[in-house]
């Protein structure tokens, strides 16, 4: 019976998270039309994309504490009901400020991850935690729902019906979750005995947050940024841009479940380190702008054109997406290894740091484009962010190894004495 309830809890939470994630990334599609309608600069467009991600990121931290002391199922239901009014107001927005404010309201959908991860983890044994969290995290595929569904709604009903359709869909998902999901997780019955920690004082938690800033924050930022990147850098149609971004989102989301299984089997740190190296190599090539070189040869000048065409670009982006999917699962497996009874507090804080990547990176992408003047400037920036993550991770591993050697030497000397 317990195994049946655990599976039911997992799939109900994953469905609810997918629906919320589709709302959280709604501006990835709507933003293209809003930018054209209001004639926004790259920086203004980045701010618009960041609005729902920003509020969702900020709220993940306090909600992490809230889920430790309250019934997660009830919190999930209330959270979904609260974003329905914002969806109903979306068709009535006409100014840049109104879109920003509604975007901040829609950001409530972003806290669904913090609620859901706390709800799911207590239903499974430690050896299955990575896989369970990976399956739940596959709800990131909700972004793919938006990329596929919104163009369909626009084509058949018009832009003004997107908010109404999403409000109806969210109401149906809320009702389904209320009836399908088990009453509550086991954690609620003994939360008072759990040791409380302050994530702000733990350097280790900040490191985990930095890793998640890249594997989740950059994934979220790319979902928002790729549609307009394809349209501007490669002059694709709106439909083609959405389909290619959909492919990236869908693949990256689905492999998260596989990444959780790999983290259980081979170790989360090994998976994470491999992910970083793969992404670093891909970002190196994506950072290179289209270049024409003139070589002065013996028999005349030779022009050499270097460019990442759309096929190579899409291939590299897919590889990064797959790696990020594995990375998102492995980071939370690491957290579960170190803080199994504080997944709400620590997981919420790490989710907060990661989600800030989704709101800060689009803004930085816009600034980089405006300042540098080449489309690949956003990937140059991302390359630098990843390099910092890898330096921190390498330094941390060296410190841990040094501490273990020192402790071993002390223990050995003590035994000899």
List descriptors.
417 residues, 15 helices, 77% helix, two-stranded antiparallel ribbon, mainly alpha
Task: State the gist of this model.
The chain is mainly alpha-helical. It has 15 helices and two strands.
Per-chain topology:
Layout: H1 2-24, H2 27-38, H3 42-69, H4 72-89, H5 96-106, H6 112-121, H7 129-137, H8 142-156, H9 162-180, H10 203-233, H11 238-266, H12 268-286, E1 291-297, E2 300-306, H13 310-338, H14 343-372, H15 377-416
Antiparallel strand pairs: 1-2
Helix pairs in contact: 1-6, 1-7, 1-8, 1-9, 2-3, 2-10, 3-5, 3-6, 3-14, 4-5, 4-6, 4-9, 6-7, 6-14, 7-11, 7-13, 8-11, 10-11, 10-13, 10-14, 10-15, 11-12, 11-13, 12-13, 12-15, 14-15
Description:
- The chain is mostly helical.
- The protein contains 15 helices and two strands.
- The chain has helices at 2-24, 27-38, 42-69, 72-89, 96-106, 112-121, 129-137, 142-156, 162-180, 203-233, 238-266, 268-286, 310-338, 343-372, 377-416; strands at 291-297, 300-306.
- Residues 187-193 have low confidence and may be disordered.
Q: β content, as a range?
A: under 5%
Largest sheet: 2 strands, antiparallel
Structural class: mainly alpha
Shape: globular
């Amino acid at each position: 019976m317990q195994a049946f309830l655990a599976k039911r809890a997992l799939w109900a939470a994953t469905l609810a998270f997918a629906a919320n994630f589709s709302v959280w990334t709604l501006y990835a599609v709507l933003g293209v039309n809003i930018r054209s309608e209001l004639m926004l600069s790259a920086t203004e467009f980045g701010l618009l994309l960041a609005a729902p991600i920003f509020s969702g990121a900020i709220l993940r931290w306090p909600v992490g504490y809230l889920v430790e002391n309250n019934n997660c199922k009830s919190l999930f239901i209330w959270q979904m009901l609260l974003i329905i009014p914002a969806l109903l107001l979306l068709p009535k927005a006409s100014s840049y400020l109104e879109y920003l404010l509604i975007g901040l309201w829609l950001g409530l959908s972003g806290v669904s991850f913090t609620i859901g991860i706390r709800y799911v983890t207590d239903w499974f044994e430690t050896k299955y935690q990575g896989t369970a969290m990976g399956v739940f995290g596959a709800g990131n595929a909700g972004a793919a729902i938006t990329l596929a569904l919104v163009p369909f709604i626009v084509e058949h009903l018009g832009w003004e019906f997107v908010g109404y359709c999403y409000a109806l869909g969210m109401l149906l998902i809320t009702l389904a979750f209320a009836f399908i999901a088990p009453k509550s997780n086991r954690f609620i019955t003994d939360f008072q005995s759990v040791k409380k920690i302050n994530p702000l004082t733990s350097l280790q938690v900040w490191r985990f947050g930095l890793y998640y800033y890249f594997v989740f924050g950059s994934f979220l930022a790319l979902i928002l940024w790729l549609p307009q990147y394809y349209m501007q850098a490669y002059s694709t149609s709106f439909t083609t841009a959405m389909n290619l971004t959909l492919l990236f989102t869908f693949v990256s989301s689905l492999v998260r479940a596989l990444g959780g299984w790999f983290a259980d089997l081979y170790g989360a740190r090994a998976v994470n380190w491999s992910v970083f190296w793969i992404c670093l190599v891909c970002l190196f090539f994506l950072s290179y702008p289209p270049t024409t070189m003139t070589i002065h040869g013996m028999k005349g000048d030779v022009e050499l054109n270097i460019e990442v065409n759309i096929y190579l670009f899409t291939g590299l982006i897919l590889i990064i997406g797959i790696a990020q999917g594995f990375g998102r699962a492995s980071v939370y497996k690491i957290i579960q290894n170190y803080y199994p009874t504080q997944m709400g507090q620590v997981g919420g804080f790490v989710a907060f740091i990661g989600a800030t990547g989704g709101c800060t990176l689009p803004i930085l992408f816009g600034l980089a484009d405006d300042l540098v003047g080449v489309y690949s400037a956003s990937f140059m920036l991302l390359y630098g962010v990843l390099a910092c993550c890898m330096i921190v991770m390498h330094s941390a591993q060296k410190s841990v190894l040094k501490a273990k050697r020192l402790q071993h030497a002390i223990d050995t000397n003590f035994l000899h004495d």
